[in-house]
Amino acid sequence: MQLPELTKGILVKRYKRFLADVDFNGVVETVHCPNPGAMTGLKEAGMDVWCSTSDNPARKLRKTLELVKADGVLVGINTNIPNKLTMEALQEGLVPVFRPFSEIIPEFTYSKGTRFDFRLRNPETGESLYLEVKNVHLARPDGPNPGAMEFPDSVTSRGAKHLRILADIARNGEKAAMLYVIQRGDGDRFTLADDIDPVYAEAFMNARDAGVHMEAWRCNISTREIKISEAVPIDTTLLQTKRDV
Fold this sequence. Notes:
CATH architecture of the largest domain: 3-Layer(aba) Sandwich
CATH class of the largest domain: Alpha Beta
Helix content: 10-25%
Radius of gyration: 18 Å
Mean pLDDT: 95
Distance between the termini: 44 Å
Order of helices and strands: EEEEEEHEEEEEHEEHEEH
Shape: globular
Number of strands: 15
Structural class: alpha+beta
Number of helices: 4
Strand order of the largest sheet: 3-2-1-4-5-6
Largest sheet: 6 strands, antiparallel
């Protein structure tokens, strides 16, 4: 997807989850930070950042934080972007396992209180697939999984709930899947940050064992465009070892 014109600045601080102060050539402005997570490694003062600007006069904060440069690469921090990237990827048939499901329904209400990012349907067979999308940008070179991209970066009870429901769907003979969209171009694999949220990690393993299909794809990112580009392996070796002990 094409990005709007971005303005470069220097991060002063990120606070109250959805706010950040950014220095634009000596003028400090408060911008919207569309990310509810911890943003570990992506919120240090002095980091180069890029912000979009809204022309909506009703908006209190005109600018939105979009990209951060960390560990030598651009990282997308806007958690609203992965669903848009996924829609593009689905329409282009990028992910092989999803290609037969050409009918795409976003924001599908599965049951009261449960909504999935997408319901996909194969028009030839009538078969459905329920798909949930997660944004990934956590990398901890000095953490327990160096070289890996990790999820989540903070506790997500909602995410664990979705995994449990997807597992039930798979056990009932329907198709269910998770797509982890990695908004950065480095790292050699994807894994679960079980030290941050062990409940989510266990729900992931249970869902996988129940037949939920798991995919992790990284993005190519520039200040002009973000695009899902290639699959990366999902590594659960350490998690499985811990389970087997």
